[in-house]
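Hi team, as promised in this morning's meeting, here are the two structures we talked about. I've kept the exact order from the run log so nobody has to guess. The first one is mostly here for context; it's the second one we should focus on when we meet again. Sequence first, then the predicted structure tokens.
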Amino acid sequence: MPLTRRSFIKTGTVSLAALGLGTSAPDARPASGAQELRNLAAGVQPLGPEDYAARREKARRLLAANKLDAVFIGGGTNLVYFTKVGWWLSERVFGVVLSRKKDPVWVCPAFEAERAKELVPAGQEIRVWEEHESPYALIGGVMKDLGAAAGGRLGTAPDLRAFEVHGLRRALPGLEIADGAPVTEGCRGVKTEKEIAYMDLANRIIKLAYREGFKTLRAGMAARDLSGAIAAAAQKLGSTGSGGPQFGPNSAFPHGSQVQRTLAEGDIVLVDGGCAIEGFRSDVTRTVVFGQPSDKQRKVWDIVRKAQKAALAAARPGATCESVDRAARKVVEDEGYGPGYKYFAHRLGHGIGMEGHEYPYFVKGNTLELEPGMTLSNEPGIYIYGEFGVRTEDCLVVTADGARHLGGLEAVSIEEPFGAD
């Protein structure tokens, strides 16, 4: 049976009643909220050996397409993505060589071999180096076994540390040390159906957690109080996550201000955060007002939401990343909040998956064409220092004929930040 969003995420019926963000806290008694806060991640199907094998097979195809004999991947997200092996970073080289011809070959400090065997799948080769030996020579030996010791091309993962890249170049002058990003980003940039389902759920959970957190708004509360309420709700819903709130003029800082401010009547409340399911992340921003919105707050909110809708409509297979950024920015500029980055101070969005910010990016100059399965944030904003800022953010996935926002519950108005699915 094919995996679908409906079969993957069995969330049941969720109340989407308006929050009523007034001067006193809306009713947040357990009778109205706790009944909804059940673990939505229970029963989620984790990745299996077949998923990692499929990733490595795609890597082989991309190695061939980019004329690379192999790629070396050190500790970090790329290593987890291709192998499920998490390894702490130190000055000692540890990693895996993925190639077009052989099964994965691991390079490991000798004294760590037994620990590595606990993590590396049975049957995969581990080559060890003693403290006085060169790990790069081991990598060179793998390349020799591939018939690529002279004139071969070894890619390095983008997150490989500089000393390792330089070490490879010094130790293996007969090899071309090349950028391995076309392999790692080529795999991670396009999500599978299962990965998209994880992200759908992660986005839904953080939106529901925000909704619960907003029920606790009250005059005089600190940002940490709202953050704590969101984190508690996310935990009940089945994930670990939170939101970073900014109140009033602090919301004009796209990544927040260090100035401590408590909530007051008429303040913008901007919350940006996320959570993860099976390692795949969400990133959501919502902006509301505590009390009655001013005409200017409402107008700016409406412009930002209009820009977000324009970007979603522009995102489709074959469209360039920069064209999607331009679609949103044109709306903002046409409404008088331009030019360029004057008020809409950042790019439209970033790729998202196992990391909160990753390849690719919605930004001017990026002519990369979108393809189905790519996932990016869609987060236009307008920031007026000394007054307030507004941002509305949802993650989108490119589909066969367009794009859709992940997790549902899209914003409807400044009073209704979470609409129906």
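And here is the second protein, the one for discussion:
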Amino acid sequence: MKNVGIIGCGDISGIYIKNLKGMFAEKVNVAGVCDVRRERALSRLTEYSAGKLYASAEELLADPAVDIAVNLTRPHEHFAVTRAALAAGKHVYSEKPLGATPEEGAELAALAEEKGLLLGCAPDTFLGAGIQTCRKLIDDGRIGDVVAASAFMTCRGHESWHPDPEFYYKKGGGPMLDMGPYYITALVALLGPVCAVSGVVKTSFATRTITSREKYGTEVIVDTPTHLAGTVEFECGAVGTVITSFDVHAAQLPKIEIYGSEGTLSVPDPNTFGGPVKLYLPQDGAFREQPLLYRYCENSRGLGVYDMVCHMEDGSPLRVGAPLALHALEVMTGFERSYNSGKYVQLGAKPPRPAPLEALLAT
């Protein structure tokens, strides 16, 4: 049993606390919560009986009872909070992205290694039943040799519904660092690491006006690209096409598709844990939905924390570790680096594909 402390009690924290106290309670205990807005932390603590209310992140990190700090702060705060937690001797699981730049991510990974601590990072959705079933279908050769892949995430941004959307248009935000982690991590889990990327990026609108109720009418200056289109070369030889955008009102694009010599695999939304998974084979002449073969079909956020704890307790593979998050960060930032330099960007260290889940649903 490991004690976790939650730093940051925004929208995503509720499902984390619920699952850590429920679905993963056999190995995880929520020791307490904190947030710069005390009333928000108090609300989570009251709603979920989430242990102790810490006055600050510093107080939480000073508590010897806390084994793992779960960093659910805003993206541009991830680096500083994770660095402070590692410096305090805590293992860390951070929401995505690991940092705003590969340099930030590398510094955190080096600090964790220096101190002998684990550093894990979201997303953990690739451990869900949907993508794990896709992984097995690919590994079993159902679509033959993988030739190519596509991944598309398009929307009109978050200012119409999110209560506090400014950070999506600042350093560490944008569609690639916000939603790209789900898509890039899923692709790496399915096909293996990336060798090189190229890209074109743009900022379509200089400002955004918030129309959600809490900050209606507030104008936000956009400091990050909001439409990114790129090409990805995988170490396995496959070629990927990736688009992420906050500039599109509507589209009819697939989330992720994998194209093989013998068929096509339609991968479910990588921001979810379940299906549907659909397989096209020429002899069928149509996409056919496939049964999900693994657990975690429902919203299982916190599964990455559980993965870390299992690794700590029984030596099982660590699937959500820093090398995967750092690789995803290098891929995601590579599109803008390619555009700014006018060159194809070769990537550095390439982690192995994360180990698949071992337990099939049938067992």
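Starting points for discussion:
The mean pLDDT is 95.
The domain at 127-297+327-346 is CATH 3.30.360.10 (Dihydrodipicolinate Reductase; domain 2).
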